[in-house]
Structure formats: structure tokens, C-alpha cells
What we know:
The chain is an alpha/beta fold. The protein contains nine helices and seven strands. It has a domain at 5-163 and 192-218 and 275-282: Vaccinia Virus protein VP39 (Rossmann fold, 3-Layer(aba) Sandwich), CATH 3.40.50.150.
Amino acid sequence: MNEGHHNHHSQHVSGESTPMTALARIFDLDAAVTGAYLDDAIDLIRAARSHEPAVVVDLGAGTGSATTRLAARFPSATIVAVDNSPTFADQVVRRAATDGWSSRLTTVAADLDDGWPVAVGTPDVVWASSSMHHAADPARLLREMYARLADDGTLAVLEIEGPPRFLPADQGIGTPGFEDRIVDLLTRSGWNTHPDWTVPLTEAGFGRVTRTSIRVEPATAPPGTAEYAVEWYAHLRDGIGRELPGTDRAILDQLLSHDHPQSLHARPDLRLRAGRLLWLAQPNAEGAHHV
Ligand SMILES: C[S@@+](CC[C@H](N)C(=O)[O-])C[C@H]1O[C@@H](n2cnc3c(N)ncnc32)[C@H](O)[C@@H]1O
């Protein structure tokens, strides 16, 4: 999820064009496997608030994994899913229908670079996960959010905390440390670059800004971990994989093959380590920020 805002739909691990369906699949697998962070983050939002929100906005909702969880955890709220991708919006609509909360869902097709969408109104909670860093002018977007958020509103900005990890330090094929080398390469190539939002949030007027690291490191691999690892590394091979030295490309090929005994498809020792950073911000305690 390292993307300049120009081509955000098609860039993920790779910096290369990726079909929306593949991207949607990675989002969904990520949510299925690492989704425990959603409830932790929502618990923190609930703890920061004195009363139930009437309107919850999911900004850059994607395929709606968080939207679905927000709807379940804020059962009396209207949920507004904002995205500039109609393909993703359709998926959110379908999910809400399947889960039976369509009457509480509003989807807004809007480009956040065109300014805060009027249709969103005055939300009580804004959830912006891996979407703020897409904004061409995040400072402007934050100022607009500050102006539009309810007086006792809560803004939750989330970012991925480093690439997901699956493998032991010695992956059993080739030179140990393969995953460390991948993480280094991703970091050097600017994968998932985002600011520490504390300063921009404060500069936009928000008070009580907190930053929390939410780790997802279950003792046993959640269902879907192997599929997610395969999807992650296959996507990576298509893109940044070309920059790997031949020895590491060979390791990657073996990890992705179906017949190698240490293949991701077969190995019993996958251990997920993932995380999210959560910034919570509220209008200043003095209140009356709508001047
Ligand atoms: C990396 S995805 C994150 C999806 C989801 N929130 C999550 O955490 O998995 C970023 C989302 O922001 C949306 N997005 C990016 N730039 C946008 C913009 N300028 N206006 C509206 N939506 C945008 C994309 O379509 C995509 O769904």
C-alpha cells in the first residue's frame, strides 16, 4: 500500500499495475487474517468517547472490511463509506446486504482531493485506514475534517505498521534472513510511506492526539494465513521481485511453488506478525471548534 496518489488503485507491493480484483483479494485476505486489529482499534475509539456515534464515516473504505466491523460495533449508527472507486463501493453495498445492515449504509463516491464531500455531513467518528496517505494535500484534508467533525467527534487515522511477516528467521531454503531482506527492500523502495500523523493532526487543530501500535501476532496462524502469504509473495514477485538478487528470487520461486517441501502452501511453521498504527484525535477539549 505504497502509493503516490496518482495511481493508488493499481499500486500495492509492486509499484506495478495490479488488477483491482487482485487488490481486492489482498485487502480481503489481509482483513480475514490480520483483522483482530479492527476490534482493538474500535475498542480504543469507544473508550475515547462518552456516547454512541450517530454517524460513522469510513474514508477510503476499500472493499469494506472495516466498514462491516464498524457497522457491527456501532449498531445504531449510520455508516458512510467514502471512496473514489465505484468497484469497491459495489462490494461494500453487497456486503452490507449480505449482513443485513443496508438500511444503515450510505456510500459516497468522491475524490478526497476535491475537498470534503458535502454528502458526508457532520460525522461523529471518522475512520481513515491506509487512506490519508493517498491525499494530495493531507493538511488540507485534515483541516476540512477538523471543521466538519462533530464537536465531540473522534478521528481515527490508521496505517499499516510495516509489511506482514510470515516466516521464521531461517526459512529453510537458501540463505537465512529472506524475509528481513524483503522487508529491507520494501522499506528502501518506499513501501507504505506515511508520515507520523501526530504533527499534521495537531497542526490541523486537533487536540488529545494519541498514537498506538496495535500488534497482530497470534500464537497460532489464523485460518487463511497460508493463502495470504502466497498472495502477498506472489504479488511481490510480480513487482519488486525483479529487483531481488537471483538467489532470493530463487527462494521466492520455491516458496511459491506447489511441489517444494518448504513451500508456503505446505509449511506448518508460518507465524503471522502484522500491525497497525492508530492515531486518535479529537477537537480540542475547549469545545466549540466550529467558529
Ligand atoms: C489502501 S486502500 C485502504 C482500504 C481500507 N480502508 C483498508 O484499510 O483496507 C486505500 C483506499 O482509499 C481509496 N482512495 C485513495 N485515494 C482516494 C481519493 N483521492 N479519494 C477517495 N478515495 C481514495 C482507494 O480507492 C482505496 O479503497
